[in-house]
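Priority: low. Protein: Fumarylacetoacetase. Input follows.
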Amino acid sequence: MVLKSFVDVHPDSHFPIQNLPFGVFRPTETSPARPGVAIGDYVLDLSAVSSAGLFDGPILKDSDCFCQPNLNKFLALGRPAWKEARVTLQKILSSTEPVLRDNVALREKSLFPMSKLEMLLPTAIGDYTDFFSSLHHAKNCGTIFRGPQNPVPLNWFHLPIAYHGRASSIVVSGTDIIRPRGQGHPSGNSPPYFGPTQKLDFELEMAAVVGPGNELGKPIEVNDAAEHIFGLVLMNDWSARDIQAWEYVPLGPFLGKSFGTTISPWIVTLDALEPFACAAPEQDPKPLPYLAEKVSKNYDIALEVHITPSGQKDSSVVTRSNFKNLYWTLTQQLAHHTINGCNLRPGDLLGTGTISGPEPESLGCLLELTWNGQNALSLNGITRKFLEDGDEVTITGVCKGEEYNVGFGTCSGKVAPAPCP
Ligand SMILES: O=C(O)/C=C/C(=O)CC(=O)CC(=O)O
Ligand SMILES: [Ca+2]
Ligand SMILES: [Mg+2]
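Result:
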């Protein structure tokens, strides 16, 4: 028998009782932020559940981790607490358990229609790193930025390459992204220009949310790394390709990326994703021992990007990809990040890098889809090489099971014009 909730959940919903993703919301503009889990079209307020004494397991019974404006304190408690919370929440939301189902007053205090509330960033993000783990993306970007001879650098096959992103400009889905201004360089010996980016792009990504983390100087072993990953969100690493191409030599992405990064509000836990785990690709050459894992795991998460062009009602799908296209696993990324002793802290965000697949329809950004603006895309008859002001980009992700889906909802942002000079 498949577990069912007393809350009505549509069969296509991303949020059945098997998912229970964690987020932070406020019921009204003036009420304080608090953690919640999504169930169907509702959000269950975890501060209310906690105040009612329903978290009665040994770790959570005396904890105030759900009476906080973000999930950091809960994340720091680690997997035993996450499992305990999931067991309690699946129990009190199930169709056969009366404690919440039959308590009208508590239900009114704790269950809110999702359409009427405001979702916030789920964690306070101290640090954000973005990896480069899709071979298809690395090959295509290498060819476009550096030419077809050796598009993938030799180090790529030996370590998960990354750059340090900017945590301060991470925003929750639904926030406008202001077109950045900056320097670009047309070609050859011509002087650089300055102005609003002419090559604004999205990047289809996911990101891991770090749990307990590690002390400075004490790396996390690759086979223990999953204990430090709470779950995943959808992510759009907005990129200004003209700024990026000019500035990145030799230190890597900077202002071409740091003007805004959007994440989805719901963190889907690794526990909820487990039924959709699959083998990660075979790695050749074999990684060094500190990156060699006993079990090399990916997840079968179908990903789509839709663009609604400025002034239009309808969106068009511009790419269909899958999380399982990644070469380096989340656990290898995390172990590599800490191998030099660098400390990760609860709530840190590790982007996977753009998730491009092998087919032309599965490329994860416009840079690849239009080959740096050489070929326009048609969106219901409207053409685009890069994003225009007013365009809205929406990423979705879902694991499709036989009896239920485990999904991420959406991650969207609309492009707002650059500030006047
Ligand atoms: O090939 C490059 O020089 C850089 C490519 C990127 O855009 C970097 C990045 O954000 C990594 C990624 O999303 O995979
Ligand atoms: Ca990126
Ligand atoms: Mg970014």
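The longest strand covers residues 405-416. Residues 237-238, 257, 261 surround magnesium ion (ligand 3) (CB under 6 Å).
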